[in-house]
Amino acid sequence: MRYVDAFCHFFPKPLWDRMQTLEGSARNIGSRMRGIPAIYDLEERFRVMDQFRHHDYTQVISLGMPPLEQLGEPAVSVELARLANDGLAELVRRHPDRFAGFVGSLPMNDPDAAVREAERAFRDLGMNGLQIHSNINGVPLDDERFLPIFEVAAKYDRPIALHPSRGNELPDYITESKSKYEIWWTFGWPYETSAAMARLVFGGVMDKLPNLKLLAHHLGAMVPYFEGRVGPGWDQLGKRTTDEDLSHVLAGLKRRPLEYFKDFWADSAVFGSRAATVCGLEFYGADKVLFASDCPFDPERGPGYIRETIKVLESIEMSDADRQKINYRNAEAFFGLTPR
Questions:
Q1: pLDDT at position 32
Q2: Number of neighbours of residue 29 by Cβ within 10 angstroms
Q3: What does the alpha-carbon distance between residue 44 and residue 55 come to, in Å, rounded to a whole number?
Q4: pTM, full prediction
Q5: Following DSSP, what letter does each residue of 148-198 receive, concatenated?
Q6: Within 10 Å of residue 239's Cβ, how many Cβ atoms?
């Protein structure tokens, strides 16, 4: 059985080397990432992947955290995006037996430059999609300045993969100054993805671009589990709000809120949780779920989540046709990969 890992992360060497010269977030993240060699060391990455050769295993690669827009002023982000996309494209070109495609990144703190970079990477590099984070330095994705970026993806019929972004600077309680115990990650990241999905729905982006393909990382985050709130709950939007009139929001949508959330695609990167996988598959169906591991962020620094995700999927009864869809056919169609 072939497996195309649709959401996993790697830093190409030119970008990695440049990041080590920066201050602030880049230096902080670099100190952590140096403890995960498979995210920047190509030979270590290959050693991890070699453990799954019997599965005919390949990857669609994208950058790890942090978002490029957090690493400096717009001019720095533009430089980093070019290094990233050129580097990822080169890895795919040189190692097609390892990397089936790549999802690029943009300098989102300069939307005009982001549009130009997206055009360049789609046109000249064969980029298979865009990774955009759940907020842009605190700005929601339905802000009008970002619409041209979504329009470029729709123009090239390439997807956008939503990746959560949230740090401990957002407290969980208004009486505190920061989030504790990594709550900002464990519960905060699924919330971030879900909130971004909601803004794309209620902000009208999905109505403006009905053919845009969107992937919600980590099996749709909170949405499948909260189907009752997303469905019948949001059918009553405005009933719980007393300080403003929200009646125009539902009236302005072309469909029920739940139907938009069903239009997202999702990936299986839930860190080996069988319960979450069953829930996500029930909500999205085999036609909308892509195999993904989030490599290399497991406790083993590479192979753990790949192995456990495969194990979970193999434990769930489904038809051979559905298994092929999840494991590789959906990724081929979603990213425009060359079938094998």
A1: 73
A2: 18
A3: 19
A4: 0.97
A5: HHHHHHHHTT--EEEE----TTS-SSTTSSS--TTHHHHTHHHHHHHHHHH
A6: 10
